[in-house]
């Protein structure tokens, strides 16, 4: 289930299709191999900062957080994801794609974490699988690729340059 908590939603947020995101979530969940249900919270930077501080001791907002369920009950409920709509909108703008595509990128990334992968500690396994699944799921760029190799992006989704004001 996807829950959207946005006190003052932008037109891009109100145009999101929960059913479309849910269909993508289920396709991506199957592609990753996550068998249990996944709850998704789409929220604000302020809430993400609170969650990040509470659960990771990092006092800043982030784009996606993953909360895996303990293994003994993970077959029923794989875990929860929290995604910042504010950060996702900024990233979508910077990379020249839609908010919907950015949310899909973040959903895939979070699902890979729920599946037990961690790009901060593995030897590139998560990045390789994310790249493979990006192609399969028709996503413009992977989160790991654009963070770890920003200068060598080959995707069409390159950051747009800000126009200087006269």
Distinct helical segment count: 7
Distance between the termini: 46 Å
Low-confidence stretches: 150-166
In CATH, the topology is named Collagenase (Catalytic Domain)
Categorize the overall geometry. globular
Strand neighbour order, sheet with most strands = 1-2-4-3
Domains (count): 1
Name the CATH class: Alpha Beta
User: What's the average pLDDT?
Assistant: 81
CATH homologous superfamily caption = Metalloproteases ("zincins"), catalytic domain
Percentage of residues in DSSP E strands: 5-15%
Q: Oligomer, anyone?
A: single chain
Instruction: State the secondary-structure class.
Output: alpha/beta
Kindly provide the radius of gyration, computed on alpha-carbon positions and rounded to a whole number of angstroms. 16 Å
**Care to count the β-strands?**
4
Percent of residues in helices? 40-55%
Element order, helices and strands? EHHEHEEHHHH
**Major beta-sheet overview:** 4 strands, mixed
* CATH-defined architecture: 3-Layer(aba) Sandwich
Explain the layout of strands and helices.
Elements: E1 2-4, H1 11-14, H2 18-32, E2 37-43, H3 45-56, E3 64-68, E4 77-84, H4 85-95, H5 99-114, H6 125-136, H7 143-148
Parallel strand pairs: 1-2, 2-4
Antiparallel strand pairs: 3-4
Helix pairs in contact: 2-5, 4-5, 5-6
How would you summarize what this structure contains?
The protein has helices at 11-14, 18-32, 45-56, 85-95, 99-114, 125-136, 143-148; strands at residues 2-4, 37-43, 64-68, 77-84. It is built from 7 helices and 4 strands; from the N terminus they run βααβαββαααα.
């Amino acid at each position: 289930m996807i829950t959207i908590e946005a006190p003052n939603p932008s037109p891009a947020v109100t145009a999101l299709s929960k059913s479309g995101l849910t269909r993508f979530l289920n396709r991506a969940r199957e592609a990753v191999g996550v068998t249990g249900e996944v709850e998704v919270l789409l929220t604000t930077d302020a809430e993400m900062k609170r969650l990040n501080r509470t659960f990771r001791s990092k006092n800043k907002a982030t784009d996606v957080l993953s909360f895996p369920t303990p293994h003994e009950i993970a077959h029923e409920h794989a875990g929860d994801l929290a995604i910042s709509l504010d950060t996702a909108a900024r990233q979508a703008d910077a990379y020249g794609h839609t908010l919907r595509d950015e949310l899909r990128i973040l959903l895939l990334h979070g699902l890979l974490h729920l599946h037990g992968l961690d790009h901060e500690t593995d030897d590139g396994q998560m990045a390789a699988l994310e790249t493979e699944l990006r192609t399969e799921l028709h996503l413009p760029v992977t989160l790991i690729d654009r963070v770890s190799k920003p200068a060598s992006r080959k995707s069409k989704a390159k950051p747009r340059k800000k126009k200087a004001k006269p």
